[in-house]
Design brief:
Number of domains: 3
Number of strands: 12
Order of helices and strands: EHHHEHHEHEHEHEHHHEHEEEHEHEHHH
CATH topology of the largest domain: Rossmann fold
Strand content: 5-15%
CATH superfamily of the largest domain: Glucose-6-phosphate isomerase like protein, domain 1
Largest sheet: 5 strands, mixed
Oligomer: single chain
Strand order of the largest sheet: 1-12-11-7-10
Length: 467
């Protein structure tokens, strides 16, 4: 089980001004207990859809049925999606498959090559289409959108559908799986008319909470990831965070430290810094979860509060050489969350008999790379503490499907607790809508004629501001 270790965020290490004190914990204990009770009750009443995903009776079976149908004849899998429809897929793949996965032979991969089109950058789209265009007969596209009207995913789908129809004719539908609303919506309608296989996007689960649903599970299972183990890990974490004593509860402790750091200690920046390249994309997934859930203008009573910690990602050791200078000597406005792996599946041992006469390198002889990575993390944690910069460590005993599932559920539940502590709705994202509507207007969608006028005035170039 992954663990949360928060000593370096305590007053004992970074002082009372920047660290969490017993008094701070006592002051928030009542609110935290109420938040925990509320979230647990909502989970058990079925009001938080993500809580049911680890033990959902049919989703994994539906996914595995389609995997059995498509995997034997698929050399390349292309996921079309953005935000919650892409980031979980990417995080699972990077964490649980080799970094060289797409370069391996089909036998060693155990599944198709994976490409996730998480943007509408024309070069990303055209280069990917050119690459898979040579073997469309063995390429499968998974389009993921609850409504089907998200501009980015819809445009990708239109381009793919057109290419498939032109090159494969009536057989094009065999190369698309639609993950969408199971009952309604634009994509659902198109999928039924085209005869596409479909997987459900749960109606009560927001995109950023959907990684443990078919949204994230299908590409994972296609690429030989044990989705049953991922779900077992998530379920194990669900049981822990729902029943464990608060100060031994990893989600409650994490929420308390983050809340106190944000509200009482002047730490509006929350950095996630994995010391593992395999975990780096978890930080991308976390950024959407944290930002969309907690960045809110108003509380539940409609009062303007403009709240929300800003999520930042970094990578150890890479960003020791690019960001830690700022973290130690810049504004003391950050809480660092390290992700540390205690046991790596493979290691590299440095040679014993090299550079015997080079004093500056002898300490590295016969050392393991894993020991160096661990030393770098702990040295950075120590250096930050010397500058009164608080940090928390999430310890992974090892990286495997179970611990990745645990991490996803831990942060989803922690996000719910933070929403209660901040008295906000952590499950909507109203500020995203204006940008979507402005995009519709700029692209000429019917019904947005009035919106285009102020946008064009805003976009008019004033040369006095052009340097």
């Amino acid at each position: 089980m992954i663990r949360v270790y928060w000593k370096s965020a305590s007053h004992r290490i970074v002082g009372r001004k920047h660290g969490v004190t017993p008094g701070d914990l006592a002051a928030v204990e009542g609110a935290l207990s109420q938040a925990h009770q509320t979230v647990v009750e909502r989970c058990r009443q079925g009001k938080l859809g993500y809580a049911a995903l680890p033990s959902h009776p049919t989703y994994a079976k539906q996914v595995k049925n389609l995997v059995a149908k498509y995997k034997p004849d698929t050399t390349d899998l292309v996921v079309l999606g953005i935000g919650g429809s892409a980031l979980g897929n990417i995080a699972l793949h990077h964490a649980l498959n080799p970094v060289t996965y797409n370069l391996l032979s089909e036998r060693k991969r155990g599944g198709p090559r994976l490409f996730v089109l998480d943007n509408v950058d024309p070069m990303l789209i055209s280069d990917t289409l050119k690459f898979v265009g040579r073997r469309l007969n063995t390429t499968l596209f998974n389009v993921i959108s609850k409504s089907g009207e998200t501009a980015e995913t819809a445009s990708q789908f239109m381009a793919i559908r057109d290419m498939l129809r032109n090159k494969l004719g009536d057989n094009f539908a065999r190369h698309i799986v639609a993950t969408t609303d199971p009952e309604k919506g634009t994509l659902h309608k198109i999928a039924k008319e085209d005869g596409l296989d479909m997987l459900p996007v749960p109606g009560d689960v927001g995109g950023r909470f959907s990684v443990l649903s078919p949204v994230g599970l299908f590409s994972a299972a296609m690429c030989d990831i044990d989705i049953d183990a991922v779900l077992r890990g998530a379920e194990a974490m669900r049981q822990v965070v729902e029943v464990m004593d608060l100060m031994q509860n990893p989600a409650a402790v994490l929420a308390a430290v983050k809340y106190i750091s944000f509200m009482k200690k002047g730490k509006p920046m929350h950095v996630m810094m994995p010391y593992s390249n395999r975990l780096y994309m978890l930080a991308d997934w976390y950024r959407q979860l944290w930002a969309e859930s907690l960045g809110k203008q108003t509380d539940r009573e409609g009062n303007e509060i403009f709240t929300g910690p800003t999520p930042i990602k970094a990578l150890g050791t890479t960003d020791q050489h690019s960001q830690v200078q700022l973290y130690r000597e810049g504004p003391n406005d950050k809480l660092i969350v390290f992700l540390e792996v205690l046991k790596h599946p493979r290691d590299v041992r440095l040679p014993r008999d090299m550079f015997e006469d080079v004093p500056g390198l002898t300490y590295l002889r016969n050392a393991r790379m894993s020991k160096l990575l661990q030393a770098e993390k702990r040295a950075t944690e120590f250096a930050l503490a010397q500058s009164q910069r608080p940090s928390v460590t999430i310890q992974f005993p090892e990286i495997k499907p179970e611990t990745i599932g645990q991490f996803f559920y831990l942060y989803e539940f922690t996000t719910s607790l933070m929403g209660e502590l901040l008295n906000i709705n952590a499950y909507d994202q109203p500020a995203v809508e204006l940008g979507k509507q402005a995009t519709f207007a700029l692209m000429g969608r019917d019904g947005y004629d009035e919106m285009i006028k102020p946008i064009k005035r805003f976009m008019r170039v004033d040369r006095k501001y052009l340097a």
